[in-house]
């Protein structure tokens, strides 16, 4: 599972870089519009995931700004990572 999370984070980071690159240097008309729409959708979804993260994990873990930044950047893959941490804390208190 740890490998899946790391691979997912790497792919997510590449997607962010591609979408942000497209903002400054458009990659053709149709592709550029699609990537801009995907960027908007990604930002909205990661903000929703941030709210979920705060509601679920704030009572269970002490969270800092870096934790919230990781969720904004990596989305569901960070949520899975924090889920594993919580489960590990429950098994080994």
Written account of the structure:
By secondary structure, the chain is mainly α. Helices cover 84% and strands 0% of the residues. α1 packs across α2, α2 packs antiparallel against α3 (65-74) and α2 packs parallel to α4 (76-91). The radius of gyration is 16 Å and the shape is elongated.
Question: What attributes does this structure have?
Answer:
mainly alpha, single chain, 93 residues
Shape: elongated
Give helix % range: over 70%
Order of helices and strands: HHHH
Rg for CA atoms: 16 Å
Strand content: under 5%
Q: Structural class, judged by helices and strands?
A: mainly alpha
Average predicted local confidence, pLDDT? 91
Give the number of DSSP strands. 0
The unreliable regions are none
Which secondary structure elements does this structure contain, and how are they paired or packed?
Elements: H1 2-24, H2 29-57, H3 65-74, H4 76-91
Give a concise summary.
The chain is mostly helical. It contains 4 helices and no strands.
